[in-house]
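Note to self: keep these together.
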Amino acid sequence: MPDLRWLAVSPSPTPTTPPPEAVTPGVAGFIAIAVVAIVIVLLAIDMLRRIRRAQYRSDVNEMLDAEEAAARGERAEDEGGDAPDGLSPGGPAKG
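Structure:
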């Protein structure tokens, strides 16, 4: 085992505490936080665009489905109305 007695007799350095003003993140910390904030804002904007686009698509799909159902209903009436009341040629009516 090595002889470590010399550590006991050597003087320990006195700890020096830096002044509170010296312990700051500095310019690098500010830039890092600014970049993170900008990225979060850009991600939020992109997310809102995607949500709006999905809502618009679902609204358009609903309108197209309604127009298609109305066109099928008009065609059934034009053909003589062979379908019983409440039933369309494709099956029972919804609602």
